[in-house]
Amino acid sequence: MQIFTPFTTETIRQLNAGDTIELSGEIYTARDAAHARMVQALKNGDAPPFSYEGQAVFYAGPCPAPPGKPIGSIGPTTSGRMDAYSPALMEAGLRVMIGKGERSPAVVDAIKKYGGVYLVAVGGVAALMAKCVTKAETIAYDDLGTEAIRRLTVENLPLVVAIDHLGRGM
């Protein structure tokens, strides 16, 4: 199934655990350090680095881009490392998360409460996933290096719905 960003409530509701999708459009990368800063910004009442509404965060820290390419290898980071931050970000409007591995009960509850979805990317195929990225730019927290927040434009990024908006997992 082909899905385009930004995500709408209707798009999220049509996804079921176990569905395979190809995602195209803009997504954002963020890992542990960036998540900690995003949650701290929420606590401080500061503006987020990007609008969370309808967006997807890919738990990834891409490798530097080789000559002529928008990005180096990019693969999913273990999602459990973001579990302490995800419910707060979902409350602030984030609905779509991309990573690998299981999620905590608190994240599953937040997915159900806020109508989100958790997508998984296959680990170990980072070089192949990079071929789906047509554009990459750092938009926040440049001092974090590979953990900086990047806006990526992707085409046909292969993903699987691991937890749907009803909290059903595969």
Explain this structure to me?
The chain is of the alpha/beta class. The protein is 24% helix and 28% strand. It has a five-stranded mixed beta barrel. The longest helix has 13 residues, at 32-44. The radius of gyration is 15 Å and the shape is globular. The protein starts with a strand and ends in a 7-residue tail after the last strand.
Please outline what is shown here.
Helix content is 24%, strand content 28%.
Which strand order spans the largest sheet, edge to edge or round the barrel?
2-3-4-5-7
Write down the CATH class.
Alpha Beta
- The CATH level-2 architecture is identified as Alpha-Beta Barrel
Q: Pairing-aware structural class of the strands and helices?
A: alpha/beta
**Total of helices:** 5
What name goes with the CATH superfamily? Fe-S hydro-lyase, tartrate dehydratase beta-type, catalytic domain
Rounded mean pLDDT score: 96
Shape: globular
The main β sheet shows up as: 5 strands, mixed, barrel
* End-to-end distance: 17 Å
